[in-house]
Amino acid sequence: MSESVFSWPVRVYWEDTDAGGVVYHAGYLRFMERARSEWMRALGVDQMAFKQATGLAFMVRDMQIDFLKPALLDDELSVTVEVKERRAASILFTQTITKTDGSCLIRAQVRVACVDLQRMRPAPIPADLIPEPAP
Fold first, then answer.
1. Using one digit for the tens of pLDDT, what is the confidence trace for 16-34?
2. Buried-most residue among 47, 90, 100, 134 (CB within 10 A)?
3. What is the pTM of this model?
4. Cβ–Cβ contacts within 10 Å for residue 86, how many?
5. How far apart are CA 106 and CA 129, in angstroms?
6. Is 18 noted as a catalytic residue in this protein?
7. Which family does the entry's similarity section mention (predicted)?
């Protein structure tokens, strides 16, 4: 799975938009978070079981977003997840949000850190949890 781009579909609902029917900027963050969660699920990772077994969880450390075009009420979108870099305690993802016509609305780089929840400190990602990205 790490060699390909994971894609997750989303439809824009009223709750995602402002009064003008345009997706509110924080809505894109939810879409990207859900896509990363679904990516992990597709890898066979149950995040709750992982947390209970290890005391570890992933938290966003850094995010850079280019808002290129708006998404509107009822748009059908595709949110992608691709691992660009894996370090001992973090993963750098490239994510995009596109419309079904192929137009790119959002480009983002998201670094998530693996955190020991008891100490709230970075912790090594278990070696067998997430595959290394393709070179």
1. 999 999 999 999 999 999 9
2. 90
3. 0.91
4. 16
5. 28
6. yes
7. Belongs to the 4-hydroxybenzoyl-CoA thioesterase family.
